Amino acid sequence: MTMYAAGDSRALPTFAPAYEGRRRIRGARSWILPTLIGDAVVVALAGVVALLGRRAGWLFGESAALAGDLSIVAPLVLVGWVLAIALVGGYRSDVQGAGSEEYGRVARASVYAGAAFGFACYVTDYDLSRGFFLLLFGLGLPGLLTVRFALRKALHRARREGLYAQRIVICGDAAHVDDIARVLQRDTWLGYHVVGAVLPVGTTMSETSAGVPVLGTAADLTSVTAEHEVDVAFFAGGAAGSAHDMRATSWALERAGVGVVLAPSINDISSERVRVHPVGGMPLVHVDPPTWADASRWGKRAFDVAGSSVLLFLLAPLLTAVALLVKLDDGGPVLFRQTRVGRNGREFGCFKVRSMVPDAEARLAQLHAEVGFDGGLFKMADDPRITRPGKWIRRLSIDELPQLLNVLRGEMSLIGPRPPLPSEVEGYDAGAARRMWVRPGMTGLWQVSGRSQLSWDEAIRLDLYYVDNWSMAQDLTILAKTARAVLGGRGAH
């Protein structure tokens, strides 16, 4: 077995960046202070704006003098609100940086603080302006959530640069180690940098198939964590022989100051579908059924019809101008109708503004031969079939706007998996075919995660995640991100 010294660069092939000459702060605990300061500033500003707004008569049509109240109320609100956030765990490092739990805790704490504040005024018969109260919490809560969002984005950027990172070692058999390593390598914003793996006793390989260096076996775990300055040990499948072994190992790591994370062999499942219920001292992970059926209900369909109707009305002048440009360029047809496969395998004509030469389909086989295309999604960065106006039409995704007609007709949705070609569907396995259980979308996770820059496997993975974990909140988030991705022209060919 090959063991690596702590300073040996071979131990950190592609999973951990170099930190020479840079001060690295581990973990997210040091991010708590900026968050606390940000919350305090938001609450204070909300109080000032509420005071000025009430004096100006923003609510209830008349001004109110609150100068005497401010010296009493302001410190109580500031301390009480921030304390409420702390009591519900809004400053815990394990909820910062990922998931919706952080936002939920801040919102819940704000409701608690508002209720407590109003009840205290009622019990003490304190005459506080209703307008001030409504403005304070009406402005404060959105402000807190906005600051949390901005801080989260800053934390993600810092983590991608190697700051606020945690050095981890993954324990388990080689296959499970590689599964986790690939996820953490892909999502660097999580702040986990893999320094190596610890495999079961008796394993003799020096690195896994994914290139993760093997630092030792399960018997060497505590010494490996000390030698390589590990912050967290991830336990995957095959990590421990029994519950007794796992408990003894966790106690040893606790004494060494190393965190423990259990990584069950389930990937691409949203946190909303996962629940942990301890039974007899044994934590059982319950996974709710996939939510793909909910994506076909009347609520999503009503949203699609209303949204596509409004967008067609607003975009009519733009579509008219684009149609004239396409027609004047080469005299060919404005719209291009391509056969795609929709929900439950039904084929339909997908509308697009024509951005290629009229004989683009006839020239496709020749391009396949030239680039050595062997299946999947065909995209070229400099496709010679694209017309002059087609370049910017595709970059801004204007060519896809006529698909709003497909949405109105019920063949597509505003958000969903990418509509595949019949030739692509022929090569689907049972897993990939699952993406056709819902209506395809004009935009989706694939659109806001890289578009043409994604590999075929990654695009399928994102589509399957959407199908299994659908929610209206996720749809709204994707819709908001699409505008940024399209306007920036990111990943479009």
Question: Any overview of this molecule?
Answer:
- This protein is of the alpha/beta class.
- It folds into 3 domains: 119 residues, Rossmann fold (3-Layer(aba) Sandwich), CATH 3.40.50; 131 residues, no CATH class; 194 residues, no CATH class.
- Helices cover 46% and strands 12% of the residues.
- The strands form 4 sheets. The protein has a 5-stranded parallel beta sheet with strand order 3-2-1-4-5, sandwiched between helices.
- The longest helix has 33 residues.
- The two termini are 47 Å apart.
Helix content: 40-55%
Ends: how far apart? Answer: 47 Å
Radius of gyration: 28 Å
Strand content: 5-15%
Q: Given the structure, what is the number of helices?
A: 16
Question: How many domains in all?
Answer: 3
The dominant shape is flat
Unreliable stretches (pLDDT < 50, length at least 5) are 1-25
| Class per helix and strand makeup | alpha/beta
- What summary fits the major beta sheet? 5 strands, parallel
The secondary-structure element order is: HHHHEHEEHEHEEEHEEHHHEHHEHHH
* Strand tally: 11
Mean pLDDT: 80
